[in-house]
Amino acid sequence: MAETGFHRHVHTHPMQPPHQHVHHHSTRRAGEPPHEHAHATGFEQLTYLSSAIHARDARAKVIAAVVLIVAIVSTPPMRPLEFALVVALLVMVTMIARLPLLPVVSRTALVLPFAGAIAVFAPLTAAGGSLNAGGVSGAMSAWPVEVFGVLSKAWLSVFCVVLLSATTPVAELLAALRRLKVPAVLVLLLSFIYRYVAVLGDEVRAMRVAIASRAPGLPARRQLTLYGHLAGSMFIRAYERGERIHAAMLARGFDGTLPTRPARRADAADVLLVITAVLAACAVVLA
Fold it and tell me: Taking a C-beta distance cutoff of 8 angstroms, is the pair 91, 103 a contact?
């Protein structure tokens, strides 16, 4: 007879790295598999790998990430050597967590276009916002340092966030935020965004398929107008769906908070992780 109850252990599948997640063993007949479980797809599947970083308490990882991000964004623009040392630290964490480096780095690169648009105007801020001849010359002389500073801070901060999200399941991350006294409304909002962004994405894809099948030769200008109308329709449908979901949750006893698994006690390894992040943050600030 199989063991019963929700628990987790490390297991593997052919051609896949070791991973773990909560599952349930139930009574089974001889010859049947010990358990069946669904696997996450895409980037989320990285949160169920088995490593020393994944095993750490989510609260310790949140605190470590926040401390390091605050140190990165609150310091003057980094010199190349300082930037390289912080990158080496984050890459080392990626390797310890057994994460594939290329997907992680490619996801962090998504912030660069947005940060680049801000970095273009950073020299004007350094020159006091003046557009006279002296201001422009001062801005141009400060341009490489200021642009590199904005891009490096944005990229390193996103790198920390990506490592946090790649090593912590969303349910544990939200529970950690609640135990760290983050406002309950904000945690609840993040929970609903995570759960229903995929649903809204499916709605958008269905609309795009409908447009492509009914008007394949529609001019670009007409498509832009049509997508504007669809955005309004999408907002109304999302609002109505939210009202139905809220009514269904109230009917099932929803009291404003979502249930979570009991928290485990932090151990020495969790404390060591936080101390390491604090020391790294001090090195960034004092360098």
Answer: no
Contact 68, 160 (CB under 8 A): yes
Q: Which two tokens stand for residue 30?
A: 């001889």
Structure tokens at 237: 């449908």
What is the domain partition of the chain in residue ranges? 1-39, 58-168+267-286, 187-251
pLDDT digits (tens, 9 = 90+) for 72-106: 998 888 888 889 999 999 999 999 999 998 989 99
CA distance 79 to 120: 19
End-to-end CA distance of the chain: 60
Distance, in Å, from the CA atom of 19 to the CA atom of 8, rounded to the nearest integer, reads: 10
**Helix H or strand E encompassing 24:** strand 23-25
What pLDDT is stored for residue 16 in this prediction?
Answer: 55
Q: What share of the chain is helix, strand, coil (3-state, %, to 5)?
A: 65, 5, 30
Higher model confidence: residue 232 or residue 59? 59
| Phi-psi domain of 129 (left: phi exceeds 0; alpha: psi -120 through 50; beta: other) | left
Whole-number pLDDT of residue 191: 85
Nearest to 69 by CA among 280, 287, 234, 257: 280
Paired sense of beta strands 5-7 and 23-25, if any? antiparallel
